[in-house]
Amino acid sequence: MSALTDATRTGAPTPEPTGAQVPALPAVEVTVLVPARDELGSIERCLDSILAQQGVDFEIVVVDNGSTDGTAELLAARADRDPRIVVVHQPEPSIPLSLNAGLARARGRWLVRVDAHSTISDGYLAHAAKRLREGRWAAVGGRKTAVARTSRGRAVAAVLNSKLAVGGSTYHWGTEEQVVDHVPFGCYPTELVRQLGGWDTEIANNEDFEFDQRLRREGEILFDPALTIDWDSRESVGALYRQYRRYGSGKPGVAVRHPRSLRLRHLAPPLLVVYLVGAAVVGLRRPGVALAAVVPYAIGVTAVGARIGRSAPPGADRAAIPLALAAMQVGWGVGFWRGATALLRRAGSRRNA
């Protein structure tokens, strides 16, 4: 029997009470795992969207990752009012450590990850459980739609929701059910996640993508557009740049572990950064040549940005769309080289130890 078949048939074991006076907790079918750090402005909307779910018994395990903005206090108050909410404290800043801390506490047969700055659609948990019960899928995930509240934020969201900008990342724009290599907020058989050891704590970023590459050895990952999650995008171009720089920094580590997961689209931003740095160096002596080298990229970004702008949400700052597109590409590329440099330094340190 495969690990996937075994996990979908048996479900996750329920932890034993640690003391004789602790009553057994009622069984749940789904554990919703929510890592959170300084999410005071969004965590209540997230919890409300989960608590409104019907058709399945569930618990919410929120892992507070060292919040200092009042999130921890708010979570404690919500947990006091609703026994479906369980708060776990994991103070070290690390998403994979937080996910693993929540996994250790999970009682549900199915594990559904939800971001603290997102909301899920009606019926999300019941539909995810239904698809997982089919026994065919190692994971199921849906469409991640970026939303924002400011004009610049809506420009950022327009870029993140466009196939022209995110390319092969189906979960940003897909409308048809299909097998994919990754979903950002996965729904999994809990026992299968445990059998795989949870999330790799050495991968600080791209931990979800890395996990999915291990998961694919056990079965297929299904993208189902009936599952929709609204995810708060960054509200400025600078914040988007920093976010994608962080994303890019995790890719070299994942590529070393899973070289077959690397695609041409992953190499395009790092190569773009090399090209732009080369143009800047040339510009120190021959600014005209450097300008001629950069102009085609600027024209291309502007043209793509104009196309994205046609379907941008009302109130979006359309002039900021090309800037957001460039920030995403350059940020990811810069992060990639930073991650590769850090990887080489660690390898050197191990050799010299």
Describe the structure.
This protein has 2 domains: 3-16 and 26-234, Spore Coat Polysaccharide Biosynthesis Protein SpsA, Chain A (Alpha-Beta Complex); 255-342, no CATH class. The protein is built from 13 helices and 9 strands. It is 49% helix and 16% strand. Mean pLDDT is 91; it is low at 10-23. A 5-stranded mixed β-sheet has the order 3-2-1-4-8, sandwiched between helices. Strands 5, 6, 7 and 9 form a 4-stranded mixed β-sheet that branches. The chain has helices spanning 3-10, 43-51, 71-81, 95-105, 124-133, 151-160, 163-166, 190-195, 207-215, 237-257, 264-283, 287-309, 321-352; strands at 30-36, 58-64, 85-89, 110-113, 118-120, 137-147, 178-180, 187-189, 220-232. With 353 residues, it is an alpha/beta fold.
Provide key terms for this protein.
five-stranded mixed beta sheet; globular; four-stranded mixed beta sheet; transmembrane; 13 helices; Spore Coat Polysaccharide Biosynthesis Protein SpsA, Chain A; 9 strands; Glycosyltransf_2; 2 domains; 353 residues; alpha/beta; Glycosyl transferase family 2; membrane
The major beta sheet can be summarized as: 5 strands, mixed
Q: What is the percent of helical residues?
A: 40-55%
What is the H-and-E element order? HEHEHEHEEHEHHEEHHEHHHH
Strands, count: 9
Organism: Quadrisphaera granulorum
Keywords: Membrane, Transferase, Transmembrane, Transmembrane helix
Protein name: Glycosyl transferase family 2
Pfam family, one: Glycos_transf_2
Question: Can you give me a brief rundown of this structure?
Answer:
With 353 residues, the protein is α/β, with parallel strands linked by helices.
